[in-house]
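Title: Prediction job returns without error message
Component: structure pipeline
Severity: low
Priority: P3
Assignee: unassigned

Description:
Job completed but the reporter wants confirmation the result is attached to the right record. Sequence as submitted:
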Amino acid sequence: MAASPIFALSFETQMEKPTHIQHFPLKLHLRLDWSEMDMYGHINNVMFFKYIQASRINFWQTAGLESGYYKDKIGPILVSTGCQFSKPLFYPDNITVEVRLEFIKTTSIGLHHRILNGKGELSAEGHDVIVLFDFDTNEKVVIPEKLREEMEKLR
C-alpha cells in the first residue's frame, strides 16, 4: 500500500460550487502522525489548533493576504480563534481541513474551518477573526477592494 502524502491541497472552482451556504472552497489534506496522539490514544486537542492554523495560512496564501506584508509590511494578524470538538481523531488516519470566508468587514474577516476524519465525519469546527494590520504603525487598516474581491471568491 502506498503511503499517503503528508500534505496536499485542493481548490474547487466556482463551477463546482454548490448552492448551499455551507460550501467550503478550500480543502487541505493532512496525514495524522503518531506523535500527535496523547496518553488516551487519540489525537491531542492542541493538534486541532495546528490543523486550523495550516488551514488559515492556506486561506491567506490563496487569497493573497501575505503578499502585502513583504511589500508594505501590511498583513493579516490573528485576533481570536476557537474550536468546538465533536468527535476524536485517531492515528492512523488522513483528515481534511476545510475553510471558507465567514464574514468580511472594514478591517477584519472571519474564517470558518471544519476538520473531517478519513470517513468524512465532522471532528471539529473552528472560527477565526483576523484583521489586516500595518506592522510599521501597529494599527488596523482598511481591507483594499481588490483583496476583498479575492477573499469573496472563497466564501
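Comment from assignee: result matches the submitted record. The chain has three helices and seven strands.
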